Amino acid sequence: MRNNTRKLQSSFELLVTLAFGLAVLLPLVVIAFIQLAGANTNLSAVESQQAASKLASIATLVGSEGPPAMQLAQIQVPPNVRFVYVGNVNNSVGHEIIFVINSPSGLSYVTAYTPVNVSGNLGGITSTGAYLINVTATSACPTNNVVPCVYMTPKV
């Protein structure tokens, strides 16, 4: 009987030790997953900023040349991109290219400014991957016929 008691005691001590170890490790694993989610969001924001800056730079170049200047741009859309707006968040004529990114704390906006009027329809670009974008200088913007602008559409 005494031998069985020792085995039971050592099994119980091992069980308590393992439970204590798991209790210490579980919060560390949760913190690691939270940090990883934040790192992915930061990476998406940096890649979105690069894509928006590239489009703004090309729009400035094409806009300075005037109509009928046109250029084809390739951008890489990172994960977690929900919307891409050109001009402003209403997709009308403006001076910004805006990437909206899903983050753990809600939506984040990454913008790039361009001195020329820009407009376009890049709303269909929400999947991760490379996209070709037509960047065209027009004398009358399709979204506002009075204003000249640089118009952007995905190449199909």
Order of the strands making up the biggest sheet: 1-5-6-4-3-2
**End-to-end distance, in Å?**
81 Å
Regions with little confidence, pLDDT below 50 for 5+ residues: none
**For this entry, what is the oligomeric state of its chains?**
single chain
Distinct helical segment count = 1
Quote the average pLDDT. 87
Q: Biggest β-sheet: count, sense, barrel?
A: 6 strands, mixed
How many strand segments? Answer: 6
Given helix and strand content, the structural type is: alpha+beta
Helix content: 40-55%
Beta content: 35-45%
Shape: rod-shaped
Task: Round the Cα radius of gyration to an integer and report it.
Answer: 26 Å
Q: How is the topology of this model organized?
A:
Elements: H1 2-65, E1 70-77, E2 81-87, E3 94-103, E4 106-120, E5 129-138, E6 149-154
Parallel strand pairs: 4-6
Antiparallel strand pairs: 1-5, 2-3, 3-4, 5-6
Walkthrough of the structure:
This protein is α+β, with helices and mostly antiparallel strands and 156 residues long. Helix content is 41%, strand content 36%. The protein has one helix spanning 2-65, and strands at 70-77, 81-87, 94-103, 106-120, 129-138, 149-154. The chain has a 6-stranded mixed sheet with strand order 1-5-6-4-3-2. The chain is rod-shaped. The model has no long low-confidence stretch (mean pLDDT 87).
Q: Which key phrases capture this entry?
A:
six-stranded mixed β-sheet; single chain; alpha+beta; 156 residues; 1 helix
Question: What's this model, at a glance?
Answer:
With 156 residues, the protein is of the alpha+beta class. The chain has one helix at 2-65, and strands at 70-77, 81-87, 94-103, 106-120, 129-138, 149-154.
